[in-house]
Design brief:
The chain has about 100 residues and is α+β, with helices and mostly antiparallel strands. The chain has three helices and six strands; from the N terminus they run αβαβαββββ. The strands form two sheets. Strands 1-2-6-3 form a four-stranded antiparallel beta sheet.
């Protein structure tokens, strides 16, 4: 992996009601990942860190959120990259099953 260390690819798990539903129904886990990471790097990082087999990786760029006070527009939240990782049948990540 040129430029990004394996443990720097995954920043944090995304835990929401929607992501919990994806875990229960489709074995899909959501992570915030480094903006420079590609699908191959994300797959390798999840397989090494959590010791699971990854079937598929989908990525999306989440845009920055803007706010407005009077005429002044400012950035409330930074843009970030989200990865939805689908695991092989029968596999799970214990971090989410707490």
């Amino acid at each position: 992996m040129a430029g990004i260390h394996l443990y720097d690819v995954i920043i944090r798990p995304v835990v929401t009601e929607k992501s919990n539903a994806l875990i229960d129904e489709q074995r899909q886990y959501a992570f915030e990942v480094d903006m420079r990471a590609n699908k191959i790097q994300i797959k390798e990082a999840v397989e090494v860190i959590f010791d699971v087999t990854v079937d598929k990786v989908a990525t999306m760029n989440v845009p920055a959120k803007r706010g407005q006070r009077g005429r002044r527009i400012y950035q409330r939240k930074q843009a970030w990259k989200k990865a939805i990782v689908t695991l092989a049948p029968g596999q799970s990540i214990q971090l989410f099953n707490v």
